[in-house]
Amino acid sequence: MEKPPTYKDDKSLLFDEAVDDFRAYLRYMGAMGCNGFAFSQKTRDILDRWGKDVALTEELADIRRDLGDCKRCNLSKGRENIVFGQGKPRARLVFVGEGPGHEEDVQGEPFVGAAGQLLTKIIQAIDLTREDVYICNIVKCRPPHNRNPEQDEIDACLPFLVRQLKAIQPRVICALGAIAAQTLLNTNDPITKLRGGAHEYEGIALIPTYHPAYLLRNPAKKRDVWEDMKKVKKIVIGH
Ligand code: URA
Hints:
- This protein is of the alpha/beta class.
- It has two domains: 10-49, no CATH class; 72-237, 3-Layer(aba) Sandwich (Uracil-DNA Glycosylase, subunit E), CATH 3.40.470.
- It is 47% helix and 10% strand.
- It contains eleven helices and six strands.
- The protein has helices at 11-31, 41-49, 60-67, 75-78, 102-107, 114-125, 151-168, 178-185, 191-194, 212-217, 222-237; strands at 86-87, 93-97, 134-137, 172-176, 199-201, 204-209.
- The protein has a six-stranded mixed sheet, sandwiched between helices.
- 32% of the residues are buried.
- The structure holds uracil.
- Residues 97-101, 104, 110-111, 113, 115-116, 137, 213 line the site of uracil (URA).
- Uracil binds at residues 97-101, 104, 110-111, 113, 115-116, 137, 213.
């Protein structure tokens, strides 16, 4: 005769047992006068994500695998490396730039050249590090001579960025420059009109700001970027 499942061989029973224990513990703590717990940031991140499409959410590694040795547009012909993106897979903050430059193409990582060094400083100015955030671009291969990506190149690459953003589920996206802001907001409005406003991408706060490469040429605009970053910080950290 078949034995009934025990707590040891049925994981759902084990889980039920743990939940019962935890419930009893909370009841005991409540009776002792405890009415709250201080959770770590990691625990709060887990609770934030609890029950949200867990089964439907894919991993960044799956998306990278699907991208493969991409030849979906002409940018593949001149590239050295695909620059997929870099950083924390569950980052609260994602920076989206335009496309890799020479240094990024050589190293296969986003924002590692002069503009990237400025972006690193911008991230540090809001008390974060590059490891705390995720950094990627609208197109993953370097446009020749650093020209703007063409619409067909953006169209070929965008589905992968859309999937990356869905997988990461950040609280805020910071769009760096006109191409990133216009693409994610599906508008032709100039960056001068977009920055300073409150926007959303798929229910995620989107803050457009000037591209760090533009800032290197126009340092007076750093003041505006600082205003934008204060808003970013408020959403990410809560103050
Ligand atoms: N500029 C971008 O838009 N992206 C990079 O990765 C580097 C420079």
